Amino acid sequence: MKTYRSDIDGLRCIAVLAVLIAHAGGPLSGGHLGVDIFFVISGFLIGGILLREIQNKSFTFLNFYHRRAKRILPAVIVVSFLTVIFGILILPANELKELLLSVISANMFSANIYYWLTQDYFSPDASLVPFLHTWSLGIEEQFYFIYPIILMVLVKINWKAAFIFLLLATTTSLFSGYFVDSQTSFYLLPFRAWELLIGAMCAMWMHHNPTTPKSSVATHLGLALIVVSLIFLGKDANETPILIIFPTIGTGLILLFGDAKTSPKILSTKVFLYFGTISYSLYLVHQPVFAYTNMIWINKPTFVEMLPAFIASITLAHFSWKFVETPFRHSKTKAGPFILRSISVTLASVLCFFMLMNAPQWRESPQELALSDPLREHCHLGPRSNREQTGMHNTQCLLGNETKPDIALIGDSHSATLFTPLKTTAQQNEWSLVMETYSGCMPYFDTKPSDMKEDCKIHNEIQISKLLDIKPRVIVLFPRSRISARTPERLEHLNNSVQALLATGAHIVFVLPVHEPGFNVTPTQWKRSGLNLPTPYALAFDKKHIEFGKAVKNGLPNDERITFIDPTEEFCSETECTIVDRESGISLFYDDDHLSIKGGMILGKNIEPILKEILNDEK
């Protein structure tokens, strides 16, 4: 009969609060390592149960998975249901489909595989993914589909040989992470199993050595390793798997050498025991609450601003633990019916997903006008683009005489926001036009920064050669030039590049930096509208925009063939800059820094008279 250990609930408290603080943007760079603490605890507790039942021949797969289902699924199903219901209120169709896919994968214990294929855990947008945290449940349950089978074989041999086998498996799993990319080693079981195996080895050792001396020194050292890891080990810990050994070994020391007398007393205090008790429910509910809070917030919320979401998560977790987790965990429901009901819920989720996939576009709204320009697919290049089918080689990006066009639009993704406005203007005025931009590439043609990507260098060399050949009358350029204004070196690169463009004989229309809201305007506006929350039409004017614009203008050649257009004159007053069109209510940005089609059309109206003046004068 196993004895309750309060220090394990204390460890759970540390693990779950570390994760919450990290996800709320708090001061724990290694807070995500709380999951690794959970893995070791799980391996210790479940590994110990399996070992005892297999040795006394009371183990059956049906009963084991029945207990796991009662422990895991009820809270997962309830949180899944509430998360989807809230998602229906605020998410556009594409994001709702992604949510349903993630919910299905979570209920099928394969979320780690789903996110391995779709989501970087450490990317900025990870805070907007409601079910991202369920990747860890996938790891655990996949482990427990395999480990009982291995253990049934191991108990038939000498326990010391079995222990050595587990030690070798742990070492292999740990170091195999160095032979794959960080995304793979983070999400997939073969490269995470070692953490659960550390706990399982502790359980095996204690099972065969019940009189192992307890040590206050060892447990306090273990707690110190955990605390130091949570404070100082950041994202690098997952890119260097050996670093994760510190919190996992620290947890193992407490599990192996701790008891009521030797474990740190703080682990058994009432606060620690409470959070340890609700830790599973708290872990489950926090990510959807945090993600939805991040979605509807104007700009990214600070840690202090996330405190209401923190408190809401604790409140919801308490109710989940009391009314969902505990009753099901102690219910006498038979295994077969319970598992069948769980499968039915999962199949119902799958059915809902496919119904939504084939449903009419019931969520479309005027906000669709705020999305990025559809011409990007044809005219905006990237590392994987087929140059023979995009840009200047695609008929969607050409208008009229392509061998000697009136206008050429070049630059990065900011220039790409002018595709539709320029094409519309060119059609109305019967001007010929070519358009070709490249993702993330400043138009540096003459000299190249040392940190410039190789694919950008190749693209720019091809493009300047093409421009020298076709000699457009006007080159329109709208790069994210605030990047070039940050250092004198980059300004010099931009200056030399404009000189190279002038050598084509073209007149340069240079669009200066646009104000950048700093948050995803269109998605945020959509989600806030679902809750009847207003989105501000404008944000306070940042004087840096003027400084960037002046720096760019002063850094470029003083040549009458260069005309500058300043977007702040259209979008900004002395005190604020517009982010949502006041008349239509449509966002002027489709993300945190790119103009939407609506924003591009407004800016395009300011470019049209300049083009008329230049092109008509030349005629």
Structure description:
- The chain is mainly alpha-helical.
- Helix content is 57%, strand content 5%.
- The protein contains 24 helices and ten strands.
- It has a six-stranded mixed beta sheet with strand order 2-4-3-6-7-9, with helices on both faces. Strands 1-5 form a two-stranded parallel ribbon. It has a two-stranded antiparallel sheet with strand order 8-10.
- Helix 18 links the parallel strand 3 and strand 4.
- Helix 2 packs across helix 12, helix 10 packs antiparallel against helix 12 and helix 14 packs antiparallel against helix 15.
- The relative contact order is 0.09.
- About 1% of the residues have low confidence.
Keywords:
single chain; 619 residues; mainly alpha; six-stranded mixed beta sheet; two-stranded parallel sheet; 24 helices; 57% helix; 5% strand
Report the uncertain regions. 359-367
Approximately what portion of the residues adopt beta-strand conformation? Answer: 5-15%
Q: Based on Cα principal axes, name the global outline.
A: elongated
Using only C-alpha atoms, the radius of gyration works out to 30 Å
What proportion of the residues is helical, as a percent range?
A: 55-70%
> Which structural category do the helix and sheet elements fall into?
mainly alpha
Q: How many strands, which pairing sense, and closed or not: the largest β-sheet? A: 6 strands, mixed
DSSP helix count?
24
Question: Span between N and C termini?
Answer: 95 Å
